[in-house]
Amino acid sequence: MMKPVRVLIIDDSATMRKIIRFALEANPGIEIVGEAPDPTEAFRMVDTLDPDVITLDIEMPKMNGIDFLRRVMKHRPRPVIMVSTLTVSGAAVTIEALAQGAFDCVAKPSLKDNASFDDLVEKVLAAGSGRHRARPPARPSSSEPREPRKTLGLGSISERVVAIGASTGGVEALITVLTEFPADCPPTVITQHMPANFTRSFADRLDRMCQPRVQEVEDRRPLSRGNVYIAPGGQFHLEVVQRGDTLESRLRAGDTVSGHRPSVDVLMGSVAQAAGGDAVGVILTGMGKDGADGLLKMSRAGARTIGQDEATSLIYGMPRVAFEVGAVQKQVALNSIAREIFAGAKARKEGSVLCHS
Hints:
By secondary structure, this protein is of the alpha/beta class. The protein is built from eleven helices and 14 strands. The active site is at 167, 193, 290.
């Protein structure tokens, strides 16, 4: 039998610590080795207990969660799951934590919200599986000024739309990819698994860092060049539809698909139908299989499809399944994905053919 995942809970609320303990101890694959009411006590427990995974509150006395995370990732790196409130300020700080190397985030569980219990258990088990890399952030802070705007000058001959799907590890991955996008990129639609209210903060952060405009998408909006659109977390599926000569967004309520709402499968399936071969599909790091079916539909419709490779994926789940079903035409390292997205457009401009391995 595999050893249980050993977890340290850090939260200044005794009630919340009990709720988290209750949620995690229901799974026999998880063992709670300690609870800490503040980061100062938590540091001592990390040294003495050596937990596999840490759940971490954002706002605590003596030291906030971000400062604690930075210190842990520097001295005793291990997976840290942020347990955050569903507030604008809580979401913004959680996005910062994910960019600083946190494994993933969940909304603070409550006795009325069983879904958050399920998410927390699933992510703790994945974090403790040993099939990932705890690491410091790979990109500069969003407070640093971005470079002067650059364009590819591709005109109307580049693909009409780029569709990207990501989950666990997606914040860092998307920062890496999108900060290499030119100001005149094709309209880009993204489904990133994230709680409600978090995606707006994520879009705002990316908008400060990237050449194109990044925004949380709204319903029935034309998709235009130089814009990146992120699906709202937890509420609707994002679809792309053809309306006249343009592509347009649709936000659709409905049941979860492949375990998620919004679902990467839904997004990519709609892009396959709306844009056919005039699109690029990209699957990034994440747990599960969401996106494999949709990316396969894009590939069969003639689109170029790209998958993040195992070596650079925090969780090689979604890219692995997509590759195994034949949806991924080419696997590349994270820092090469942006170049690969636009390589085909450049090749088309030059009249050459891009060969996929």
